[in-house]
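Take our chain:
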Amino acid sequence: MLKILQKFLKSIGLIPIREHQQPFDYNINDYDLSGEEEKDKIQLHKDFLLSVLQEENNRLSFVENKTTQIISQTSIIFSLVGLIIPIVIDKFDGVSFFIKLTLILLLMIGFFMYLISIRNALKNLNIKKFKYPYANPENVITLKDKTVEEFNSELIRDYLYCIKKTVLINNIKGTNLLHAYKSFKIANYFTGVIIIVICSLVLFTTQKEKISRVKIETPVKLIK
């Protein structure tokens, strides 16, 4: 039971993942091609690694777009539920205390899960925490007297380093997005249950019409 609870808490980000697995274990210095006779192979490697970097940039854009959508949608639903539910609950004076308590508990759990969803999504917007690498522009100066093949070889090593770090960062952001989505989905389930219960109360509960009566203590008699 404890393991199931821990797994659930990890799935919504309440138990943080202390160390993320490195996506690759290669050493960038193992790439040692630099001869002119290998220029075609070097160019092919360069183009391939550049395409991998572009795919990771596309994945980053997808993750950030989904993160922004979850934040905006969660904020809207959070506000609407917070405004509507208390007003609706207040109209059911004849409803038992147990039903009201159940609705309040469901509402609190739903709000809590929405907050967790926003918290997980906002992690991806922390610019200071996610520092993306890039190819060293100083290579143009430091390698200006080298051959094209030697320059491309150094650029390939930069790409290899950037891919390793970029994939890791994108994996962390993707994990945060999954945690936010899981929390958002659970919160929607609780909100759906609340709406079903309220609709059932509206359908099956007869509300008494409150009629205001005024009693006149000393009525005035009209004498013709």
User: Anything to note?
Assistant: The chain has five helices and no strands. The longest helix spans residues 148-204.
